């Protein structure tokens, strides 16, 4: 392939691409209807001219036939009057008119056929134009819907849903963080407050009251027993000693518990 052929092909391809991109369906349909209407006007003019020509030829044909019939009657009249020469002249005129009519007959038939063909073409073109108008309206509606859908899709495509959802997630994390910080600040603020201190004191007082009640109960039970026999006193003494040891352990345990509560 020569260089000029390649250049020519590239130029044609670029021109075709430019033309395709420049084609607007709505404008193209409108222009197509304009062209078809122009063709319709020209076809109507051609039909009118053909009809006029066919009528002229038919008129001439009928006129020559009428002339031939007239001279035929005159020849008969002259012959009936005994004027043979005059009858012969009339027959000559009849022949000339008949020859002219015979020459016009094919032309008349041809023109009539042309007129019929043109009329059919005119009817077909009118039908196509009517159909094209209907299609133009339908395609126009579809084109508007397609443009609207395309604009909608372009707008949706321009929206970055991932970044938008990411922004929502980041904002949610920030709100959660702020809520947690607020709760921590509230807890810190209330932890050193007077209300919390009194609550701790009241909690510790309950334990002390319970301990005092237990000691009073133990002391009351020992006094209610009264004087006992010596053996029982010894047993009681040893029991008291044991109780004292137990109380000492209990006190130590309670002290440990108290320290735990204080801490």
From TrEMBL:
Keyword Chloroplast applies: no
Annotated region described as Disordered, given as residue ranges: 172-263
Keywords of this entry: Coiled coil
Pfam families: PspA_IM30
Record bears the keyword Cell wall biogenesis/degradation: no
Coiled coil: 26-81, 108-162
Record field: compositional bias (Low complexity): 216-245
Protein family membership: Belongs to the PspA/Vipp/IM30 family.
Protein name as it appears in the record: Phage shock protein A (IM30), suppresses sigma54-dependent transcription
